[in-house]
From TrEMBL:
TM spans (from-to): none
Lineage: Bacteria, Pseudomonadati, Pseudomonadota, Gammaproteobacteria, Pseudomonadales
Keyword Cytoplasm: yes
GO molecular function list: phosphate:acyl-[acyl carrier protein] acyltransferase activity
EC code: 2.3.1.274
Subunit relationships: Homodimer. Probably interacts with PlsY.
Cellular compartments annotated: Cytoplasm
The protein's name in its UniProt record: Phosphate acyltransferase
Pfam families: FA_synthesis (PF02504)
Keyword terms, alphabetized: Acyltransferase, Cytoplasm, Lipid biosynthesis, Lipid metabolism, Phospholipid biosynthesis, Phospholipid metabolism, Transferase
Function description: Catalyzes the reversible formation of acyl-phosphate (acyl-PO(4)) from acyl-[acyl-carrier-protein] (acyl-ACP). This enzyme utilizes acyl-ACP as fatty acyl donor, but not acyl-CoA.
Domain of life, source organism: Bacteria
Amino acid sequence: MNAPVIAVDVMGGDLGPSCTVPACISFLEDTPLVKLILVGLSAEITSLLPPLTDSVHERIEIIDATDVITMDDPIAVALRAKPQSSMRLCLELVREGKANACVSAGNTGALMALARFTLKTIPGIDRPAMMCCLPTQANKDCYLLDLGANVDCSAEQLFQFAVMGSVAAEVMGVINPKVALLNIGIESIKGNQQVKQATSLLESQNKLNYIGFVEGDGVYRGDVDVVVCDGFVGNVLLKSSEGVLKLLRTRLENRFKANWLGKLKGFLMFLPMLRGLRKDFSPEQYNGASFLGLQGVVVKSHGAADGVAFKSALRHAYTEVEENLQARLSKQISSLLEDVLLQ
């Protein structure tokens, strides 16, 4: 197999090239069997490059883009007014087979629209969904989708997300993954119409290990392997979780810094533990959400990602390419949807 090639929209994100370019160089230094195509304003990219080793220099390519999609650009502007944007050129590299994956920290709505327009969806899938993995008390990952790509979803789309999430979890090594719909209760009478209709669809098939509803606290207990919801709910859950984690970390640090005795106790007793927890549950470590359902690998980095987090998104894309995730998804999703429709 040739070295995987990842196209990087270096102009995306709140910090832009000052964050993404150093992260790309660091990623290349850590990962010898990969090539990166940096797409953006070439003069700005070049000015940020440090002296490169021969090994890194030969695995990096720069493609100039004359347009940049901002975080505030409407989708119509991204689609029609900026044909030479760094984001769009990255996706076209994937479509043309010149890159195996695209990574961007840019405007989520624009990336979603451009990815659908450029790469198209897998047959049987209406809309792509964003998926990430979360840590749980059960010491296993829980896959959550959608994270915000689809604010309003029909029952049929939630059903498709469940199929994609189950297949993706299996590809990532989960055996017979337990799939659930996120709801405000586990009782069958609870939930909005879309959720109730989606559970009827899921209960009518026997190809997925669908176990019913799960509440928010069950996500982090590890009760299930795949949690399905619309993008509005998923985004609120994810951002709230990040906020709670930061709150706890700040409160603990402030408590230890309150006086000299607290500092001493914190240094001797709790600092190693806190460092371990920070490493285990750092949002930066889990950065990188997959756009499932596309005919190509697209990974969305958090817009506020720092260099460490952006490297995580690059590693995420690299893993998906190495695992041939998109092709395996296409094959298994088409087969499963066909079987379900025939029932």
